[in-house]
Amino acid sequence: MTVHTGQCLCGQVRFTVTAEPSGARACWCRDCQRIASGSATVNVLFAEEAVVYSGAISTLRMTADSGNTVERGFCPECGAQLYSKTVEPSGMPMRVRAGTLDDPELIAPSSLIWVSSAPSWACLDPGLPHHGRGPDSPLVEAG
Amino acid sequence: MPAPYHGRCNCGAVTLSIEAEPVWVRQCWCRQCQRIAGGSATSNALVMTDKLATRGEIHWWEYEAQSGNVIGQGFCPNCGTHLLGRNSARSIACVVRLGVLDEAAELAPTSIIWTDEAPAWALLDPALERFARQPPAPGTAT
Fold first, then answer.
1. Which among A99, A123, A125 has the least Cβ separation from residue B39?
2. CATH number of B5-130
3. Is residue A103 assigned to a domain?
4. What is the 3-state secondary structure (H, E, C) of B96-117?
5. What is the value of pTM for the model shown?
6. What is the structure's pLDDT at B142?
7. In terms of residue numbers, what domain contains A72?
8. Chain B contact set for A74 (CB, 8 A)
9. Average pLDDT over chain A, rounded to whole?
10. Does the distance separating the beta carbons of B124 and A78 come in below 8 Å?
């Protein structure tokens, strides 16, 4: 099996993934816009046990717009955002930030979520499904 | 809505305000920006530092770019939200990351830089001016 690798901007944190992604999506929730310096985060979904990090990681638990408790990890040195995982409810795939993968083209996002909070200037791919809120929320018309 | 603009990080430990219109607003797809911004381009408003006020601790990480310029990335040490970026080539100004600004700011990018490094799946707004790499500084002969 191919081992996927990645790192933060300064290289203090590195990781390996011994699994293929189960999907990828872009998230326009308001928290993600802050995390992503204005755009959506692009998240690659992996089984949590397949992702192994080394180096110091700062984490913060917050209640996301979904109401779920999520833990977000970032490098304390360079601030690169590394991942988000849902603590409650359990069993959801881990979201690895695509920018930290050594190959950000590993998989293209196949859906957009939380488009209801995207800024008016956001360029949303009309060819992808647009969810108004989380991935299980109803689809909305591509604008 | 015109200036002033206000913003904060995700946890609220850092807040900022800008009291003048930005010099420019643009997106950057350089590989370094993708690493800090969750996989997308960063979206940045250039403001004069004397028009910018911040409250709360900002952690700075600096590196030397290929150009030789020293780039600084400023983020909240508690939640990791990136707020500011600075470049030794323009010491009187810095960029504010658009995501931290309140919705009412309504600032929108007008150009996209470093498109050469955007992933194949990136969707670039066809209405915006594009630069394959770093655009020339204002006033530079081209």
1. A99
2. 2.170.150.70
3. yes
4. EEHHHECHHHCCCCCEEECHHH
5. 0.94
6. 43
7. 4-117
8. 75, 79-80
9. 95
10. no
Residue of A37, A39, A62, A77 to mutate when probing chain B, most B C-beta within 10 A:
A37
Positive or negative CA dihedral for B93, B94, B95, B101? negative
Structure-token match 């995390």, residue found? A35
Contact list in B for residue A9 (CB cut-off 8 A) is 32, 35-36, 61, 63, 73
Domain edges within chain B: 5-130
Q: Do A72 and B100 touch (CB under 8 A)?
A: no
Cα B21 to the center of its chain, rounded Å: 14
Contact B99 A38 (CB under 8 A): yes
**Confidence (pLDDT) at B12:** 97
CATH number for the domain spanning A17: value is 2.170.150.70
Map tokens 């995700």 to a residue: B10
Cβ-defined contact of A98 to B34 (cutoff 8 Å): yes
CA dist B71 and B89 (Å) reads 9
Q: Which amino acid would we find at residue B63? A: Y
Q: How many domains does chain A have?
A: 1
Q: How far apart are CA A123 and CA B32, in angstroms?
A: 21
Q: B36 contacts in A (CB within 8 Å)?
A: 9, 37, 78-81, 99
Residues A39, A94: Cα–Cα separation, whole Å? 20
